[in-house]
Each structure stands twice: as C-alpha cells, then as structure tokens.
Amino acid sequence: MFCTRLHLSELTGLRATTLGQFLALIKQVSGSCIYHHTHRFLQQHQYLSPEPPNDFAYWVTDILGEDELGERLVSIDTIQYSTIRDLREKIASTIESYLKDNPLAKLKFARSGEEFHFIKSVSFILPTNYVAYDLKEFVEVLKKITIDSIYFHIFEARLRLEKPTNDFAFWIENSLGDKKLADSISSFDPYTSTLEDLRNKIIQIVERKIVN
Amino acid sequence: MAKIEEYIPLVGQAVIDDLRLLGERLKGKVIQHINSTPVGGGVAEILNRMVPLLRELEVDAKWDVIKGGEQFFEVTKKFHNALHGRAEEITKRDFEVFMEISQQNIESINTYGDIVFIHDPQPIALIKKKAVNKWLWRCHIDVSNPNERVWGFLMDFIVQYDSAVFSAPAFSRKLPIRQFLIPPSIDSLSDKNKELPQKTIDLVLRKYGIKKDKPIITQVSRFDRLKDPIGVIEAYLQVKKYIDCQLILAGGTAEDDPEGFKVLEEVKEKAKKDPDIHILLLPQNDIDVNALQRASDVIVQKSLKEGFGLTVAEALWKAKPVVASNVGGIPLQIKHKYSGLLCHSVEGASFAIKQLLSSTAYAKKLGENGREHIKNNFLITRHLRDYMLLFLSLYHPEDIVNL
Fold first, then answer.
1. Cβ separation of A129 and B15 shorter than 8 Å?
2. Using a CB-CB distance cutoff of 8 angstroms, which residues of chain A are in contact with residue B399?
3. Is residue A203 a contact partner of residue A143, using CB atoms and an 8 Å limit?
C-alpha cells in the first residue's frame, strides 16, 4: 500500500540574526524544525539540481557570507544519520567547532528582513488508493504516484519515522525476498537527485530486474 | 469556471487524487469564509475560485461578507497602511468606529461554520462570537514592521483564535496560538491566467490604443500608494532616456479601498505630459489584464509593502521577466537573478528594466525559470491542499498526523 505525506509549514516566530542565536535555536527547536530546514529544498525546488540540501547552509553562506561554514554544513552527509536527533547534533557541533576556530564570525549579523526564521514541518500521512503485490504492479504505481508519495517512502519513513531503510527497499526485501534488489535501491544517496530523477532511477532498476 | 479535473493535465492525476482523499477527511465539516468585499483585490479573487473548488472536493465551503460602509473602510484602510508600517494618524474615534461597525456585524452575521475562517483585519472582531467551533485568522498583509498600536489592538482578538495564517515567514512573531505559513496562489485556468490566442492580445491592445511599436513595461496593481505607481513612472522615465519604450499602469479599485480614486488622480497628473504612459482603469476585466501582461516585455511590481504580490506570480506564470521590490512575499516568488530581478529603489528598478530590455535572452531565461517555480509552488492546487491540511490541523495538534 502506497502512502502519501503532505506537509504544512508551521511558523514558530523564532528568528536568528547572528550565528550565536542561530546555534542556540538549533539546539532548542523541535525535531520537526530541523527536519523542515534540512528537507524543504528537496520539495520546494525539486526541479533544480543540484540545490543546497539545507536552509541552514544557504543562510550562513548567502546572508552571513560565511562560505566555509556553509560548505561544512552543506556537505553533512544526511543519509548517514538515522535520527533527527543525531543530525541536529552534527549540525550544532559543526557550527560550534567553526565558531571556536573563527570567533570573529560571531560578530556578523543579518540585515533586517534577512533573519533566519525557524519553521517546522507538520506531516499528514494518509494511505492512497494505490496498492502493489508484485514488482510489475510496483513499477506501474511508481510511474503514477505523486512526488509527495515518493518523498514519504524514501525520506520521511527512514529519518522521521526512524525506520532502518527506505520503505521501498524494506518491502522488496521482506515481502518479495529480493535482498539484492533491495540493496541496490537503498544504496544510492537520494539527497543528490531531484525527486523526479529519483523516481526514474528506481523505475529503471526495477524494470531491469523484471526484464532479467 | 474550470472544474477540478481540468487541472489534471497540468499537475497530474495523483495530485487531484490526494486532494480528494483530504476532502473525504473533512466530510461533514462546514467551512465558513468571511471577508470584507466580494470583488476587488487578491482575497476576493482567491475565494471566488477556492470556494467552488473546495465544494467540488466535497468540502462544504461557504463564503459570507461583512457590511462596512465608507467610514468603516476609511478606518480599516488606515489600519491597513499602519500595519504596513506607514505613518498614519489613528484617533480614538477610529477605534470606536471600528468597534461600532464590528458590533453590528457581530449581531447580524451568523457564524454557523464548524470552522470559521476570517480573512484580514476588517472582520477580526467577529471572534467575540466564538463558541465550540474552530476559528482561523488569515492575515494577507505584510505585518513585518507594523504600527504597534494597531497591532496591539488586533492582538487582543488574534489570541482568541485557534490558529493564524501568514503568507511569509517574516510576518510571523511569537504568538500564544499556532501559526502556519501558507502563501497564496494563482489559478492557471482563470481568465486572468489562461493561455490566450495572439488575436485576443492584439484586440485588447487596439482597444486601449496601444501600439506594439516599442517595448512595453507594465505594472498591474490597484491604484494604491503602497504599490508605488509614482515610483514606477519615475523608473520608466529614467529608462526612457536610453531606450524608447512605453509604460502601462493598469488596475482597478476595491470596494474596501476608499483611497483608490485619489491615488489614480495623482498618477494621471504625473503622467499627463507623456503620451507613452497608458493609465488604464480596468475594473474586474481579467481577460484584458491577461492580454496586457502577455503583450508586455517587462512586468514591474514596485511595491513599497506587499502582502504577497500575486501579480508577480501571474507574470511569472506567463514566463515574463519581472522586476519587483524585495518586500513581503515577493522574494518567495523571485530568486534574484534566477527567476527575476529584485530591487530596492527607483534607480534599482530602472537599472533592472534597462538590463532586461537590452538582454532579451537573459530576460527570456528568467521568465522560463519563474514559470517553473510558480508551477511547482504557487498554483491553486497547492493552496487547496494547504487549506485542507490547515482545517485538519485544528483537530490534530501533533507534528506527525496519521489520517
């Protein structure tokens, strides 16, 4: 059964002007906030590639002009973190270590109107009418479902619901018993593709398997 | 009016299927929108499309309008300007007028909805009627730097709502109630945005006596000081020194904006010596607006403050290069030098217009990127989805909701 995940952005009213405030708020805000700012780009600019995979890196680079910290944040390998908690710690420690080496960066501030606004994602998960019992049906549904549905099964299931792998790989391994195919779907980094590219990549892998 | 199925070729079947799934979850709930004008301005325009589409999705949506009158709307226009940070003299009597008319509406309007959805400050005091039903306040204006006296006055009402909705993150502040970010949208199939044959565009130009013999710069906006029509003329005059071009300032007035005609007269006065400036009063003539935007070489939105600036989305949807102020919701629609050019002044606007008129390939690319961005983020189907999720959020306080 394919599900979809639709999200609503909830404003927190929290904003940062300096790196110090930014760091303090990153440590304090809810996991849903960290999730929003590390995954929003994937959906909002899903026709672009490559795009900065997180809002934190974008703000630090483009608004504060701290290119080196921006690069460190942008290159955090999100796929390595299985929980939001771990991802938050990595982001916070990256900023802390940069501030230790570059204390003057604390003095920089964003101009009025360019503050960082913390937003959180509220996710609504609902089952769709699409069901697959074998690989052939799976690939047909994959061609039809929304990118929200792909997003849910690839990103949200793993990181936000703390499942060990993405839903597609989990189903293929546990219901169809095809570990090799499951591994090939879980092995690539979904953060470096647009969602449409991701859809096409999975379709190609599964179609190749069906033909063989 | 377009039916929900007609959006499938553009957004795909699955997006519409998702909307229907959400509609099912709202069965039995009556959603009552209340605002201050049935026509004119962005709010009425959105509700005109939103309410029938929600009904098609089997959501029982209704729309009621408060009664105002000249005196009330003069006060609410002052509030509107003050919330946008403009200096306004607001007297004790103004607050009294607001409360007197609000009280009349409280007595006459039936707030029967399971969810009562109040748009903007004019009907905000209806919250006094809150019973066991849910209440939402939708702020369509830029309140990033409001007059604190007016904001404080409104805050007494806002905190009584279940949730508030803003169009841009910069408009939010710490509130004791939940607040959501929902930008507005355009309807790609409405008369204002649908594809038009060249013949229609030519006919509209002829109707207004506009020849396509020199580049056209256009701003479509209500005649409102916050849209800075005088600043647009000044920018155009600076461009005109180097590039022979013409300017169209097209717009209507709204029932709840008594200042409109005064501003229109000021604009006419400023433009009277230049035959290449076309001032067009277009009350609710959507096909004409569409044709004028499509006939333009550059679209301008030089607002001083902007709740969102739907005219920017309209222009980008038509793949037009846009020069717009970096205010309100405009930076959500334009990524500078990628999907348009942002400016902060008359000089900046004039420089950007010159750049686009001189580099047509660059201008074309910006327009194409802009259209893609609008398609992905600012069409009415996304807006419908966000509103239905918002309604559901009133019954689900958690961050991950299993429906």
1. no
2. 30-32, 120-123
3. yes
Nearest CA to CA, how far is B76 from chain A (Å)?
25
* Per-domain boundaries in chain B: 4-185+379-393, 198-377
Report which residue type is found at A46.
Answer: Q
pTM: 0.86
B155, B173 Cβ separation under 8 angstroms: no
Query: Which pair of structure tokens corresponds to residue B311?
Result: 């005219």
**Domain coordinates of chain A in residue numbers?**
7-121, 128-211
- Distance in angstroms between the alpha carbons of the first and the last residue of chain A: 25
Domain B198-377, classified CATH 3.40.50.2000, yes or no? yes
Q: Which residue of B has its CA nearest to A46?
A: B376
**Torsion angles phi and psi, residue B252, rounded to 5:** -115, -160
Q: Which of A193-207, B19-33, B355-369 has the lowest mean pLDDT?
A: A193-207
Q: What is the mean pLDDT of each run of 10 residues along chain A (212 residues)?
A: 91 95 96 89 54 78 92 86 90 97 93 90 91 94 88 81 82 92 84 81 92 80
User: What backbone torsions phi and psi does residue B340 show, to the nearest 5 degrees?
Assistant: 155, 180
CA dihedral sign, ordered B293, B299, B304, B310? positive
State the complex-level ipTM.
0.85
Chain A touched by B172 (CB under 8 Å): yes
**CATH 3.90.1150.10 describes domain B4-185+379-393:** no
Beta strands, E only, B130-177: 134-138, 163-166
Kindly report the nearest CA distance between residue B150 and chain A, in angstroms.
19
Question: With an 8 Å Cβ cutoff, is B107 touching chain A?
Answer: no
What pLDDT is stored for residue A45 in this prediction? Answer: 53
In residues, how long is chain B?
A: 403
Q: Do B179 and A145 touch (CB under 8 A)?
A: no
Distance CA A188, CA A193 (A): 10
Instruction: Show Cβ contacts of residue B163 under 8 Å, excluding neighbours closer than 6 positions.
Output: B136, B137, B177, B178, B179, B180, B390, B393, B394
Amino acid type, A212: N
| Rounded Cα–Cα distance for residues B387 and B103 (Å) | 28
The residue among B155, B157, B61, B158 whose CA lies nearest residue B112 is B61
CB A69 within 8 A of CB A97: no
Closest partner residue to B179 among A11, A44, A148, by Cβ? A11
Contacts (Cβ under 8 Å, ≥6 apart) of B185: B46, B310, B313, B378, B379, B380, B382, B383
The CA distance from B318 to B287, in Å, is: 13
